[in-house]
Please model this.
Amino acid sequence: MTDYRLSAAELERFERNGYIGPFTIYSPREMDELWGKARIELLDRTHAAYPIDVLDEVAGVTNIANYDRHLDVDFLTDHVCDPRIVDRVASILGDDVLCWRTEFFPKHAGDEGTDWHQADTFANASGTPQILWPAGDPSLVRGGTVTVWTAFTDATLRTGCLQFIPGTHREMNYDESKPMTFKPDKINAVEKDGVRRGFYGYDYRELQIDPDFVPDESKAVPMVLERGQCIIFLSTLMHASLPHTGSKKEMRLGFAARYVPTRVRVYPGSDAIEEYGGRISLDRFGSVLVSGHNAYDFNKIAETNLKGHPFATRTP
Model:
């Protein structure tokens, strides 16, 4: 069995910078073929965790429609369990790992960049923690989530690739317990320091601990990725994306899979996702055990996707 775990040198670099990669998961040709088939499957939301008829009823809901399609699309089910991803994540988080959320991040010509931000508990939109680490956890990560962001199309400077500020995961500049107001009229309508940046109608400046804090753009590193490549980073790392200044033919699409140890509580005390002005039930949701064993009873675990396709748990 091939082992894709990070080396000691890679782990040291990850701890220092807050990210590692890129890694090639699929060749560009493989990515084109896999995504071409998955795009057709995505159109059918019959088995989606958040049905389209529910989303239609909730005013203001935008990006929730892109959440957790690994729970009903077979390619994405296999992707979040891919050993080339899971082994590397497990070498950071330990052997027992859950995938608790996935998200598509599409960016079309003319779309704004994503604002600089950090996420620890993911309470930024609702004020309620969506993940909760044990107090005083001794692990390398100590909060937030490990995100694996895979480029399903090429991510370039023109199409709005990710940006990181290395080393910024050690200190939170944002207080996720503060209120952040959803303003859909602000989507694609806010300029910050000469760059159009937003976050689906939210303004991360409302969460700043220091109201005068300005991210140091001079230290930003662009994450240019070829389709089929991924980057692994901590959600507590300062990250953003550039605006899409390319042509209409150059849609940028990223797929983020988020991982935590099994000892982390997922949606603690919640039965719904509350974001973007709406509330969506978690009745059909379940975290996925992608590696090791689950010794806890507080997280709902999905053993197959909602069409019966099994999740492949990696056994260290």
User: Anything to note?
Assistant: The chain has one domain: 8-291. The longest strand covers residues 97-107.
